[in-house]
C-alpha cells in the first residue's frame, strides 16, 4: 500500500504541474464557420488565448487562402490568438456562391460578420486586422463602412492599395524606372505608350503593365521554392490545390470592372483606430510609394510604419522573424 500511495502522490504532483503549465498558456484550437449568402467560410482560431487578443488574417488573392500562410505566421500563436479566415470562393470555403456576390460591398459585409462572430465567441478579446494585398482592399472597405472600425482595436496593412488609380499609376512608374535602369527598350516603349490617368483607368491595358512589372522582377519570390512550405501546403493545410487553382476563374468581373472602381483615398481621413503600414521595400506589385501615400491620407489617427528592406510583396516570407516581431509590437505583445 505504501508503494501505491507514493506512486499516486507522484502522479498527482505531475498532474498538478501539467495543469499549471497548461493554464499558464492556454491554447485555443477551434474551427468556426460563417455561412452567408451561399458561402460556407471557415475560420480557424489557434494560439494563446490568455492575452485576449485575436489577430484576424485577411488573406490576399482574390481567391487565395489563409491557412496556407500559417506556415509563416504560426510563431505568433505562442503570444496571441490567430484567426485564419477563408473568404468566399477562396481556400477551403465551399457552398454554391453566385459570382454576383464577389463585390467589395459583400466582402466587407462578410468581414463584419466574421469579426462579430469572433467577438461573440471571445467576448473579452480585442480583435486586430492583419490584411495582405487584396485583403487590404477588403480591410479598407470594412473600416470605412458605418461604425465597423469601432469593432477592432487596430489594423495592420501589408503591401495593399487604397485606390486602383493610384496603385496602377505607381506600378507603371515602378516598372518604367526599372526598365530604364535595365536598358529594356521594349518595356520602356510599352510603358511610355501606356500612361495611367484618372480618366483612363477603365480602359488602360493594366495587364500589359502588370506583366512587365513582373518581368522586371517586381516580385521574384516564389512560395513554391521552399520545399518545406510545399510539403506543409500539401499535407498540413485544409486548402486543396484543386480548389486553389480554380478559384480565380470566378473573379472575371472583379478584374475587369469591380477593381477598377476601387477608391477609398478620401475616406481614410475618417479612420480613427491605430494603423500599421507594413511594406516590403522592393515590391513592384504594390510599390512602397502606395504605403507613403496611405500614411499621408491617414490624417486623424496613429500611424506606425515598418519597412522590410529585403522584401518584396510578402515580407512575412522573406523576413519572417522580423515580421512576427512587428505584429507583436503593434498589438502590444513584445
TrEMBL record:
GO molecular function, one term: hydrolase activity
Extent of the signal sequence: none
InterPro entries in alphabetical order: AB_hydrolase_fold, Hydrolase_4, Peptidase_S33
Keywords: Hydrolase
Residue stretches making up the Serine aminopeptidase S33 domain: 50-316
A matching Pfam family: Hydrolase_4
Keyword Hydrolase: yes
Name of protein: Alpha/beta hydrolase
